[in-house]
Amino acid sequence: MGNVNTRALLAAAASLAGCTAGFRESGSQAAMRVSPRGEIDRSQAPTPRDDLLARAGDDMLVWLERDEAPFANDAIILERLALAVRIRHGRGQREIDNRRHLGVLTERNSSVEERLDAAGALGVVAARRYRIVAAPLFAVWEGRPSGPEDVIGTRFGPIHVVVVPEIFEPFRAAPGGIGIAASVHGLDRSFRSALVALRLCDRAREPMVVADDYGGLIDLLADADDDVQHGDADSLTLVAQQHPWALETVEALVTTQTVREAARELNIHHSTLQARCDTLRTGLGFDPLQGFGRTRLGTAFLMHRLSRSTVLDLPAPAAMTGVSRPAVVQEDWRG
């Protein structure tokens, strides 16, 4: 994957804010400034304004450059930028250099020796199992877990990553994904599954997702190429375009045990649901209630959700000031 450098973090903040973002370390006259297009801004740097400035530790500053009053999201963008820069420069909760080591553990192609060296540097014990927690830089945390953390570059943008034990104290995050438990040698799989879990989040109904809830399907989804067409998912998309009830019906079918239970969940008559199932069967080209049809339906539904996930889009300002109904990891995960 490779880690995210300071320029990439500034570029992400500048893109979100729509204006140049800057960074400077104390004692240095040189500032790094990046435009919303991701390019180094070489224009004359203005003096950072107090209302568009944030400290990333005692010796680092980050800021946004506007002529007008701060925009609604500026404060949260600066807060997350400062957090990411602090982690990036090794000023996190633990005074260790996570910058290379955590990237090694989450990279699929790292060798056994590289993983063991990185784990030792981070204090991650080879004989124990851990999980990767993944969240966007704008996630709202309550009771944040302690552990090695970094900002990792992905095709979805910079992601805040934390390593936690397999059994951990409950915490709250929105949105957030918790990966499968794995040894040091499998933390790249935990990372990929955490990304899938994150993308399956629903801000209103399920702001935090645990990969274990999806069993072996999570591995299939984690290794699937988003650019490759998935026939069943494509068919489901067409059905959903033709029938507004399709997606809620499919969700009820894959999350309940029987058709009658699904009908109760949807608050419709059993015969109505049966008619919908007939329509789904015709549109999908297979029976969604028999044999592997249920597995195919569930996989298609999850692939559809992933392809249309908006959880990594910057939310509206009101949604970023707190979590009205925060996700809490269940008691099963307590240490």
Summarize the structure.
By secondary structure, this protein is α+β, with helices and mostly antiparallel strands. The chain is built from eleven helices and eleven strands.
List keywords for this structure.
alpha+beta; five-stranded mixed β-sheet; four-stranded antiparallel β-sheet; disordered C terminus
Describe it for me?
- There is one protein chain.
- The chain is an alpha+beta fold.
- It is built from 11 helices and 11 strands.
- A hairpin with a 6-residue loop joins strand 1 and strand 2 (32-34).
- Helix 1 (6-17) packs antiparallel against helix 2 and helix 3 (98-106) crosses helix 4.
- The model is unreliable at 92-99 and 318-335 (pLDDT under 50).
Q: How far from one another are the termini?
A: 31 Å
Shape category: globular
Strands of the biggest beta sheet: in what spatial order?
7-8-5-10-11
- The ordered string of helix (H) and strand (E) elements is HEEEEHHHEEEEEEHEHHHHHH
Main β-sheet: number of strands, strand sense, barrel status?
A: 5 strands, mixed
**What class would the helix/strand composition place it in?**
alpha+beta
Our count of helices gives 11
